[in-house]
Amino acid sequence: MTTYIVPLIMIGGLTSTGVYLLLERNLTRMLLGLLLIGNAVNLLILTVGGASGNPPIRGRTSNGSEATADPLAQGMILTAIVISMGIAAFVLALAYRSYRLTTIEEVSNDPEDTRVSLKVVDEDEDEDDIPKPDASRDTDAPDELDALPGFEGSK
């Protein structure tokens, strides 16, 4: 089997550029990184799929080829294209929603995650500081915290 170096260099370049763009905090750049990685995977599947040949239909020939083309690679690429377009639509919806809420496109740190990550747990912390469950609220009766207040269940 002959391996061509140009597609492999293109796959490596697309993948490395896609990973670089995914590491950015801008949602548009993240989307472009996802699309570049998706195209790199498609090229990889096409390269690994082997040489072209006759169509995978009995009795059909193309340019006098002896071998038959592998239809699995083509089917996988079509599936990967559909999946990458679905992911792109989802990320575009996230970017639009984020822009409408905050009028910026940068993904910032979540304040709650930052607070939790900066919290230092002391080793000599007393167990009295840990809240205990209230036994009087531990009933099967519905209360204001239930998802369906007033739901009595099946009788």
From TrEMBL:
Keywords of this entry: Cell membrane, Membrane, Transmembrane, Transmembrane helix, Ubiquinone
InterPro entries reported for this sequence: CPA3_antiporter_subunitC, NUOK/Mnh_C1-like
Membrane association type: Multi-pass membrane protein
Annotated segments matching region Disordered: 109-155
A GO term from the CC aspect: plasma membrane
Gene3D superfamilies: 1.10.287.3510
Residues that span the membrane, as ranges: 6-23, 30-52, 72-96
UniProt biased composition (Basic and acidic residues): 130-140
Pfam families linked: Oxidored_q2 (PF00420)
Cellular localization per UniProt: Cell membrane
Similarity-based family: Belongs to the CPA3 antiporters (TC 2.A.63) subunit C family.
Protein name: NADH-ubiquinone/plastoquinone oxidoreductase chain 4l family protein
Species per Swiss-Prot/TrEMBL record: Mycolicibacterium smegmatis (strain MKD8) (Mycobacterium smegmatis)
